[in-house]
Design brief:
The chain is an all-alpha fold and 76 residues long. Helix content is 47%, strand content 0%. The longest helix has 17 residues. The radius of gyration is 16 Å and the shape is elongated. The chain starts with 9 loop residues before the first helix and ends in a 15-residue tail after the last helix.
C-alpha cells in the first residue's frame, strides 16, 4: 500500500484521535475513512457546496471556498 505523509494542525489531530477512539478505529483507519468518504462524494459528481457533509472532518479537508465573496470593483 502506498504511503502518504500529511501535516495537520495539533487541534485537528486531537479531534481525529478522539473520533478514532469513539469509533474503535486506529488513527490511521480514521484518516483513511475520512479520505474515502471524501473520494466517494467526489466520484458521485457531487458539488461540496451543494451537499450537506455529515462528517465535520471531511468538511475541514474539503476545498470549498470559505468566507465572504468579494464584490468585483467596477472600472470607471
Amino acid at each position: 500500500m502506498p504511503k502518504v505523509t500529511i501535516d495537520v494542525d495539533e487541534d485537528v489531530l486531537r479531534i481525529i484521535k478522539k473520533r478514532a477512539d469513539k469509533n474503535l478505529l486506529t488513527t490511521r483507519e480514521q484518516v483513511e475513512d475520512i479520505v474515502r468518504r471524501s473520494c466517494v462524494n467526489y466520484k458521485t459528481g457531487s458539488n461540496y457546496s451543494k451537499i450537506k457533509v455529515d462528517d465535520s472532518l471531511v468538511d475541514i479537508f474539503s476545498r470549498e471556498k470559505r468566507g465572504k465573496s468579494r464584490k468585483k470593483k467596477k472600472k470607471r
